[in-house]
Design brief:
The chain has one domain: Metal-dependent hydrolases (TIM Barrel, Alpha-Beta Barrel). Helix content is 43%, strand content 9%. The chain is built from twelve helices and eight strands. The longest helix has 21 residues. Strand 7, helix 10 and strand 8 form a beta-alpha-beta unit. The protein is an alpha/beta fold and 339 residues long.
Length: 339
């Protein structure tokens, strides 16, 4: 079975018109409702289903489109309503196509807001919709301020609930309102900061939550590809504290997806981190949905790219394509709810 752990929901235009209403009114007219018919939902998802079938994906875990999450908007109420609506649309898609989709919920994160709203929404999505995981945006300020890094105790109530519900978190930045970065560039920046904050010598996250499971999107940001710098830093730290683990060991406390659209980077990721820490993800359809003008292949058709890495064994491929997803997302075994 081919399990793609990194996909995003497909919704009709009416859903994004609802977002426009919330932004224009700033919640003055109340929560409202997207009002999407079943037929419009089916029309929107048909191309998505065809794409997955064409590339041989059996199951895809879908979450909100991160750049659409509007975490930095005000007031907090419209962020919460919008994220709840996003998760409800995902739940509908999963109920309509239970053999293909599983839900990964967005969280109503806001700059300076209480993490409790995220805890409550995670619990709702797992208990009411049988979602299998959650997205964690390491920068809900969307590039406009300073957010607590992921080793900060601010996040501990969310980690505690993730452990209690036995669900992992997929670290994935959201929008970016800073003029220096596009949102795609911001993804890599924030995912790199997330890895380094969780792996730094002072971090207590995995001591305090030894069963916590965190996956970092897009191959870990820049960190695996700049590993020499971080290895050197850890070696210097070990001179004063020989009990510290190696930086490579710290990296392997996390998991990483394969949303990298070239074979060289994927090869390097597997060699550095080991196939036991890597999960198949494509974000298809999404940012990688472009054709290579040389080969004519879609860049996010990653299954043949990974299969083309000659040194991977059958066991390696099995871990990447299926086994790791089943281990990291144990709620995947729970059947989707029947409508």
């Amino acid at each position: 079975m081919i399990i793609d752990i990194h996909g995003h929901v497909t919704a009709p235009p009416e859903f994004y018109a609802y977002k426009s209403m919330l932004l224009a009114s700033r919640g003055y007219h109340g929560k409202g409702n997207p009002g999407i018919s079943d037929e419009r939902m089916h029309q929107a998802v048909r191309r998505h289903l065809d794409l997955l079938e064409s590339v041989g994906t059996d199951v895809q875990f879908v979450s909100p489109r991160p750049f659409q999450l509007m975490h930095s908007e005000e007031p907090e109420s419209i962020v919460r309503w919008w994220v709840e609506a996003f998760n409800d649309v995902i739940a509908r898609q999963c109920r309509d196509y239970p053999d293909v989709f599983r839900g990964v919920c967005g969280l109503p994160q806001t700059p300076g807001g209480s993490i409790q709203a995220c805890v409550d929404e995670l619990q709702r999505c797992v208990e009411e919709h049988d979602f299998v995981g959650c997205l964690i945006n390491p920068d809900p300020t969307e590039g406009t301020g300073l957010a607590p890094t992921l080793d900060d105790e601010y996040w501990y109530p969310l980690y505690e609930k993730m452990v209690e519900l036995d669900v992992p978190g997929l670290v994935h930045s959201a929008g970016c309102r800073h003029f220096r970065e596009s949102y795609s560039a911001h993804f890599i920046t924030e995912e790199s900061i997330a890895v380094l904050s969780l792996c730094k010598a002072e971090s207590r996250v995995f001591e305090d939550f030894p069963s916590l499971r965190i996956i970092v999107s897009h191959g870990g940001g820049s960190v695996p590809y700049q590993i020499g710098r971080w290895r050197a830093h850890r070696i210097r730290e070990q001179e004063g504290n020989p009990s510290l683990e190696s930086f490579d060991s710290s990296l392997r406390r996390l998991y990483y997806d394969t949303v990298l659209y070239n074979q060289e980077s994927l090869d390097f990721l597997f060699r550095i981190l080991g196939t036991e820490r890597c999960l198949f993800g494509t974000e298809n359809p999404g940012s990688g949905s472009a054709k290579d003008p040389v080969s004519g292949r879609w860049l996010d058709d990653l299954k043949p790219v990974i299969e083309g890495i000659s040194w991977l064994s059958e066991g390696d491929r099995g871990r990447i394509f299926e086994d790791n997803a089943r281990a990291v997302f144990p709620r995947f075994r729970v059947s989707a709810p029947v409508q």
